[in-house]
Structure formats: C-alpha cells, structure tokens
Write a sequence for this structure.
C-alpha cells in the first residue's frame, strides 16, 4: 500500500477558527487490468468534533468522497466505518470521530492501457461541534496498471455484506425484515438505519434464544415520499456498542409484501 | 409516515365521531394536521402569528446565520447561492399571496440581542426580503421538530401542514448528479397544493446543520 497523498483541508467558515481535518489517500502501487482493487481515504477529525455517516441521522449531511477515474473503470459505492450513535437536541445522529477510513472498490477494464493512471478523489464533509463548517479536499493519486502486478491487495476492515457472516439469514415476513444468526461475543445485536426515501424502518425487536438471535425490523413504504428512488432497506447490523465491534451491511429491496402507505394524516416529522 | 403515526391515526379515525369542527392543532407538527400556532417577534420588533395568515399558504424556513448550508458565506448556502431568493420568486409566480417566514431557533451560547444583530447582518448580506423571526427559547422549533438549517415547512391556506423536510434534493453537492436539474421540494409542494393535489413527496429527509437549541 502506497501512501500517495497527504493534504490538510482548511475549512471555509467565519470568524471562529474552523477545525482542520486531514485527508490521506492510499492506493496499491500497481494493479492488474480487469482486477478490482480498493482505495481508502483516511480522515482525521479533531478532538470533540465530528462528521457524519452515510445517513447522518436526525441532522447533518453525509460525508462524500466522489471518485473520478478514466472511462470504462467501474467505481463502487463509498463504504463507511461503523458510526457512533450520538444524542443531540434534535435527535440521534450517526457521527464519525477521530481517525476513520472510507473505502471504494474500483475495477479497471480488462483492456486498460498499461502504465500510470490517475484517479481523483474529492472529499466533502460537514464537521460540527457547537457550530458547523464544511470541509473539502481534492487530491489525485497515481496507480500503475501492470499485468504483472502481484494482485495481492489489502482487504479493508470496513463493514462487509451480511452474506459474509456465517449462518446468518435475512428474509421478509409480511411487513418485516427478519434477521437471524448466531450471537457475537462483542455484545447484543442492533441495527443502525440508513434511511432511504419513502422507506421507514421502525425500532427493532430482538429475541435471544440460547446462542442465536432474531432481529425483527418493521418496515413501512410510501411511494409518494420515495420520489422515484428505488425502495430499499439499508443499514448496519451491529454487535456490541463500540465502533470497532462487528457490523455488516444490510441492503435489500423492499418486498412486494410490504403494503404501500395510503394515509398521510398524522404523519409525524 | 411513522408506524406509530399510522396506529395513532387509525385509532383516531375509529374513535372520533363525525364532526364539522376543525381538529385542534396538535402540540407537535404533523403532516395532514393543523400546524401549531405561534407568535414570534421578528428582528425589527414586529409580531407575527401563524393564525393571522389563515387563507394564505405559509412557508417556514429554519435558519442559522452561522451554518454553511443556511446563512453562512459558503457556496453550499441556500442564501449565498441565491437558491432561497429564487425559491421566493418562484413561489410568488405560483401564488402571489404566499407568506414566507424565516425562523431562527439557534440560541445556544447566544444572547437574544446578539442573535438579532447576526440576523440583521445576514439580511443585509443576502438581501433577504422575508421576515426573520426569533425563536430564542426554541419553543416553536421544538413544536415543529425542526432538526436542521434549512428545514422547510409548507402550511396550506386552511392552516394544515402539507410538507416538511429538505429545501431541495441538494444536487449541487453531488458531482455525479450535476447534470440533473435539482428539484425544490417546497416549490413542488406549493404547486401541488395550488393544483388541488396532495404534495408528493409530503416528507423528505432534511439536510443541514443541526439546530443548536438553547
């Protein structure tokens, strides 16, 4: 892994001194045509400040890393670490603090030209404490496309898909998502919702039996509020309470068994 | 709609006898229900009550002069980028009687006088031509459950809350979406109301700085 670029992002703002967030980008030294590889962006957030997860929660704005690569290169979704749930006067927010890493999987085409290729990452985040500032940084890294590259690339310790967890099953039953599987020594299961337009996920009900758990997520769907977005249930299945404890990505389409909502009256903000 | 709201609504529908008396405004704002009334003083000392605007569509914008998505000097600010003034102009084109009110509930570590001065400066800087109301104790913000700046609300001419949520779909900050025109949910909701339709979406996730209540 090559440390490719370090930048310090001076944040725009007002008379109050804005916090400084450092952004470090990593990529493999050499990659093979047609073989996916991962790039990471490490952000270091000053003490007592926080930025936001993919779903910020009650308030805030999601952190973004937009990646630009040559035509024909496939860029995967941004992968976030597990957030810390933080209570604010406006409700619970999903905060990222300290040093965090975000990852993106990139797949070059099998006929990618050999030699150096540049990949640009533009990061943008809202960093808050008693007040908020926007931070931005744009950096370009170079990777060498080489058919003789080792092909051994680092694996990121970010949350992976639920399918990576043995003996764990996810299914629909009527209006609910049911997740079952073995318990984890880190602690009891939980769920952090990444809200999708039109889809409302209620508080989970958790049943523990011997060494297994059953987590039930009630789901409601309003196509009108979906505003054309695909209806999906997305979030993190978590174990324990620490941000380093295991977490797995849940991302499934809303089943046809979920009845679309018709009533709007009484809809609470 | 939340699951609890469905249950609450269903219970009310089953329990309430038919009546022509308008439902009382709930303590908390809710889509399809009368919006909580309020009386607030603007930065010029003039009082504004929601009930005084009955018969007209009212738009509320939660504001914070120090937030880069709201009133601060940043390209993402709806005021600095002139998206807020464009919205007010667009609303007038749809309905010349629309009332647009800006509410500031961000009072943490501030004095009332300081908040008024900050808002007066923002009004001058961004040429804001809408009343700017001070909700220093946060009562109105909490009743509307205002979470972010901006957080938008549309109340119809009968005083019923018809939309709340984001200012727009915030495409400006999504480079991959830059070729798609952004849509303003507030303008869309008011247009739907004027056409006799139910606003769709009636609710979106607001984005911006968290409201820093006192």
């Amino acid at each position: 892994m090559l440390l490719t670029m370090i930048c310090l992002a001076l944040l725009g703002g007002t008379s109050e001194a804005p916090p400084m967030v450092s952004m470090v980008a990593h990529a493999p030294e050499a990659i093979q045509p047609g073989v996916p590889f991962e790039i990471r962006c490490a952000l270091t957030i000053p003490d007592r400040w926080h930025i936001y997860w993919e779903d910020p929660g009650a308030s805030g704005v999601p952190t973004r890393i937009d990646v630009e690569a040559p035509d024909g290169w496939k860029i995967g979704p941004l992968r976030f670490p597990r957030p810390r749930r933080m209570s604010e006067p406006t409700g619970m927010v999903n905060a990222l603090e300290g040093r965090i890493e975000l990852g993106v999987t990139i797949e070059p085409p099998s006929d990618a030209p050999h030699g150096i290729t540049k990949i640009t990452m533009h990061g943008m985040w809202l960093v808050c404490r008693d007040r908020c500032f926007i931070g931005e940084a744009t950096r370009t890294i170079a990777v060498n496309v080489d058919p003789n590259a080792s092909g051994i690339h680092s694996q990121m310790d970010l949350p992976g898909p639920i399918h990576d967890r043995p003996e764990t099953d996810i299914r629909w039953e009527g209006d609910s998502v049911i997740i079952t599987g073995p318990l984890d020594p880190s602690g009891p299961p939980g769920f952090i919702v990444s809200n999708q337009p039109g889809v409302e996920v209620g508080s989970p009900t958790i049943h523990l039996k011997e060494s297994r758990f059953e987590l039930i997520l009630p789901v409601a769907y309003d196509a009108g509020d979906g505003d054309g977005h695909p209806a999906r249930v997305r979030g993190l299945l978590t174990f324990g309470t620490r941000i380093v404890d295991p977490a797995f990505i849940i991302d499934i389409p809303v089943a046809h068994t979920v009845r679309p909502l018709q009533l709007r009256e009484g809809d609470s903000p | 709609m939340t699951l609890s709201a469905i249950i609450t609504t269903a219970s009310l529908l089953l329990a309430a006898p038919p009546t022509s008396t308008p439902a009382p405004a709930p303590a908390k704002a809710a889509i399809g229900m009368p919006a909580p009334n309020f009386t607030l003083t603007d930065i010029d000392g003039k009082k504004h009550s929601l009930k005084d605007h009955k018969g007209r569509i009212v738009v509320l914008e939660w504001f914070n002069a120090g937030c880069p998505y709201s009133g601060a000097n940043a390209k993402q600010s709806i005021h600095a980028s002139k998206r807020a003034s464009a919205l007010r102009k667009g609303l007038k084109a749809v309905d010349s009687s629309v009332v647009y009110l800006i509410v500031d509930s961000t009072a943490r570590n501030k004095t009332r006088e300081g908040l008024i001065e900050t808002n007066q400066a923002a009004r001058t800087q961004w040429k804001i031509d809408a009343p700017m109301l001070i909700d220093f104790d946060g009562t109105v913000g909490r009743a509307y459950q205002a979470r972010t700046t901006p957080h938008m609300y549309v109340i119809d001419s009968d005083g019923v809350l018809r939309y709340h949520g984001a200012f727009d779909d915030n495409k400006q900050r999504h480079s991959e979406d830059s070729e798609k025109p952004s849509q303003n949910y507030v303008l869309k909701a008011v247009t739907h109301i004027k056409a006799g339709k139910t606003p769709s979406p009636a609710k979106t996730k607001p984005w911006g700085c968290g409201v820093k209540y006192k």
Remarks:
- The radius of gyration of chain A is 20 Å.
- The mean pLDDT of chain A is 87.
- Chain A is about 0% helix and 50% strand.
- The longest strand of chain A covers residues 115-128.
